Amino acid sequence: MFEQLFLILPMAIVVMGAFVLLLLSKTFSLDKLNLVAVFFLSLSFIIEILRFGTTTVCYSFPEIFGKMYIIDDFSILFDLMFTAGAILTLLINTAYFKSRNYYNGEYFALILFSVFGMMILAHSNELVTAFIALEIASLSVFALVGYHKYNKVSSEAMMKYMILGSMTGAFFILGTAFIYGAVGSTNLEDIAAYVNVPAEKDLVLVLIGGIFIMVTILFKMGAVPFHSWVVDVYQGAPFPVTMFMASTFKIALFAIALRLSLIDFASLNIVWSEILQVITVLTLIGGSFLAITQKSIKRMLAGSSVVHSGYMLIAYSSIGLGSDMAAPAIMFYLISYFLSAAGAFGILSFIATGSKKMMTYEDFKGFSERRPYLSAMMAIFMLSLSGFPSTIGFLGKFYIFTSAIESGQILLAGLGIVTAFISVYYYFKLIAMMYFYPSTDQQKKFPFDFSGLLIGVMAMMVIWGGVGTSLIPFIPGANGLIDIAKQAIDSLQNVL
Amino acid sequence: MEFYLYTALFAPIIGSLFAGLFGMSKKNIIAGLVPTALLFVSFLASLKLLIYILGGGEPIHVELMTWMATGDLYVPYGFMVDQVSVTMMMVVTTVSTVVHVYSIGYMDHDKGFNRFFSYLSAFVFSMMVLVMSDNFLGLFIGWEGVGVCSWLLIGFWYHKESATWAANEAFIMNRIADLAMLIGIFLVYWNTGSIQYNEAFAAMPTLENSVLTTIGIFLFIGAMGKSAQFPLHTWLADAMEGPTPVSALIHAATMVTAGVYLVVRAYPLYDLIPDVGVFIASLGAFVAMFAATMALVNRDMKRIIAYSTLSQLGYMFVAAGLGAYWVALFHLMAHAFFKALLFLGAGNVMHAMHDELDPFKMGDLKTSMKWTWILMTLASVALAGIYPLAGFFSKDLILEVAFVEHHYILYTVLLLTAGLTAFYSFRLVALIFHGDDRHSENGVHPHEAYRFMLWGMLPLGILAVIAGMVFKTPYFEMVTQVLPAIEYHIHNHTVFWIMTIGTQLFVIAAIVYAYKKYAKAVKVDKKVESGILYQLLYNQYYIPQFYEEYFSKMYRELSEMMWKIDLKIVDASVDGVANIFYNTGIKTHTMQNGNLSTMLRWMVVGTVVLLALAAAFTLGQSETVVELLSELGVI
């Protein structure tokens, strides 16, 4: 009993934290609530980090839930990213929510609820559980997007996101129903067993169901043609929420996507790959155009996040074509994107604290003179996002393209490299704006603060992940990270 | 011993980061002292390693970790200290420690004092990575690192437009060369399956000659960029826009010699392709002469020394090209000492003369700047190659190499260049320190540099004197454990003595002539100056103009054309795409650009397309359909 409870402890802590926050929301100040939220998340984070690599694959409360809820290194790695993402979001934006009057106590509870949902999603070994988890996470994020309720942009963004999100949620449950109709179970292992035993079974229903689920996943990733919400929603949401969505929520979907394609639909992967190739091409090209045309940095980053989904889709379609490198490559890319995007959005919202501006390229003119450290870190994140050597982003792309070449998708790898070159344009434009133009404002004295320090640590990790060695224990460098990614994927495949 | 290796390698970067912390604040002497102290630590660690290696210790090899391991690509991240790299480490740490000490005084009044030390130490770190790496990739990282630091340091006074321009020129010229080098490294990897020096070189003898030649040429193009060999040489003279300590460290002693180091390091490769070696030697001899002639008439103190550096690099390449790798490395070391000293002396003069660079406006500084005079004269004597100073042992050796290897044309060229070297060096010394006072009329009252700067320069002065005499034998014994141990001796005693004494007399004659012509009142000979030859040399053979006319201008026109194309076509199409995105928003006058029903429509279309695709793919694989289609004759 207690052993079983211990298995779900990290998630339990998060959800308990959410309830505690709700209870305290009227009595505590925002600062204290923030600390409480960070406390619960950190507790969960620490337990997970201790557990990573030590547990064998097991199920929680198997006699009650069956095999609904799985615990393996793969899901723990995702849990680590979710909690870390939420902690960073909360800590970097301490100044932000104080400068805006629309924040109140429920904000923190919502973040914890969404983290809880994402964690369940990573652990779910069954489609209905996955659906519930996804909805818990999504509903919280919907509310967070529209948090600035007197701002029309924010409300409109929430409205759009909610309607589209609900529709895709419906697709997900529809897909589950189709699969249930064919297999008679929604457990992933049963589905896998059904699909992988070649018999004269009809796979059409499974395939259709799979397509509907895939649409949901692609929608949340922001793959073209399901991307239309990305830019508007990212822009409409308050900065901290955009940061949370882009760095953390975006990742969550890959947990279920990878689990599906590695276990569930392994024998259907040939079919997936061809569909995914089409989607990948569209996503890479469409996302690049989207990113190039933007004037506001937030919208540019939103557009470019579509392109990053495209890169991951390259590896995603390589999985089906027999590339061993592909799944670890996605994991590595997720980590690298998480670090770089959280950093870039973090800086953005950190700056936005003091101003009500749009944050266009123009606003960054001469930024290096005003805030030399922040602009250096921003430059590092931009370099990493564009895949510049010696940053973690380079290695991420490197592994992705290697997996594509390994699986024979030379053209896709070529397209990826071309879009990477295009991305240099919109990322370096920001660096150029920061460094090659004189500042319009006078240099102000800026205080040392904790948020800046955190961003600095992330910038270090971006570099360390690109060139790092095993010199410093406990902080994985480039090599350690890919090992971690491989370990997580291995734990996933050991199930079969 | 690994501890010393890490100390030597990482102490400079710690210093750099430390100084970087003060980057934006006011000048703080701590930001100069700490990096200097750390560099001294690095120097001591290198010295310890040198003693260890000299004592017959095994080369140290550390592998920090596997950097990349995917499929067949295995790149360990390692460093090594062997006889060659320890020589380079000593050169780098010695000169850079001196330069750091000197810079504390030299940059005293500069606003960017802290920033300067941060860059300078970062440069030293990159240089250490370059020389200590045990594989081509690490070498390349260091190579790029020194490039970036050099760019930052040349353009240190970025408010000066000429400095920014020079920095960019150096950077771009080097990028061209680096591209070739990268191709060379890729070729090494593809053909040998490794980028570790020892593995790659071990695999090379089995390769075809044409492949090796290609690799050798591409790597050498990389070396040409860094070491400013013709035709990529123009950046070096322009790089003198940077602060003088930078010129001493980067553009005389360390970075520019990286190309020579590369050729020495890759000696197993160049030994296999002697034809390329001869080409390298010929180019080197050409550059030696070519640069020396430009130095003859130049009127910019720092540029004269820069051309001299170029010329000496030519000497080193002659030695390396002819297979005398240890001689090349030896001259590299000796040259680093006296050339850095010369630059630092020039820095003192510049400070005293309020940044005046034209030696014709100086004269008679020996009274007011006695110590600088002594040190610079010493450096010039060493450069000219007078017995028993450093230059004699290293430079005359290169002449002997050319002679022994029966390359008499190269020998003659180098001999003539030795005379030219002596002449321009002492032309400079005579113009600055002797003759009549030509600076008082400009209202300049020179003063000697700070005492500690002179003390700081002293080690270089001592080394310039003794480096050849004392170090030659132990150095030879040490370094030839790695490099081919070929002794270059002219066996015929008569020939040997005639040559040695002849060369000495020739050089001394050149010095005397230079003093005669310039140490008294300077008469400007209009007739000579308007001559074609003088004009040709004075304008650097019109090569910068040639580049401007045929490359820069063409490029600019091309850029303008592209800009127009960009405006018309690319922008129009981008705008077009943007308009498609924007249009829906404009029409509906919503706050944002996306219309919800359009979005929903997109989603449905997407889903339908996916389903259709899935249907098409599955049907295509289904046997019944294939049968059906083949019956119909479609497939």
Can you give a write-up of this model?
The complex is a heterodimer of chains A (496) and B (635). Chain A has 496 residues and is mostly helical. Helix content of chain A is 75%, strand content 1%. Chain A is built from 22 helices and two strands. Chain A has a two-stranded antiparallel sheet. The radius of gyration of chain A is 22 Å and the shape is globular. The model of chain A has no long low-confidence stretch (mean pLDDT 84). Chain B has 635 residues and is mainly alpha-helical. In chain B, 74% of the residues lie in helices and 3% in strands. Chain B is built from 25 helices and two strands. Chain B has helices at residues 2-21, 29-54, 83-106, 113-132, 136-154, 161-192, 197-203, 209-226, 234-238, 244-253, 258-265, 267-272, 274-297, 301-321, 325-352, 370-384, 390-404, 408-433, 451-479, 493-518, 526-529, 532-538, 543-588, 596-621, 623-632; strands at residues 60-70, 73-81. Chain B has a two-stranded antiparallel sheet with strand order 1-2. In chain B, β1 (60-70) and β2 (73-81) form a beta hairpin. The longest helix of chain B is centred in the last third of the chain and has 46 residues, at 543-588. Chain B is globular and about 105 Å long. The termini of chain B are far apart. The relative contact order of chain B is 0.07. Classes of the chains: A mainly alpha (496), B mainly alpha (635). Chains A and B meet through α9, α11, α12, α14 and α19 of A and β1, α23 and α24 of B.
Mean pLDDT over the full residue set of chain A: 84
As an assembly, this protein is heterodimer
Give the total of beta strands of chain B.
Answer: 2
What value does the Rg of chain B take, in angstroms? 29 Å
| Strand count of chain A | 2
> Which secondary-structure class do the elements of chain B indicate?
mainly alpha
Tell me the fraction of residues in β-strands of chain A, as a range: under 5%
Instruction: Record the strand order, biggest sheet of chain B.
Output: 1-2
- The H-and-E topology of chain A, N to C, reads as HHHEHEHHHHHHHHHHHHHHHHHH
Major sheet of chain A, described briefly?
A: 2 strands, antiparallel
| Total helical elements of chain B | 25
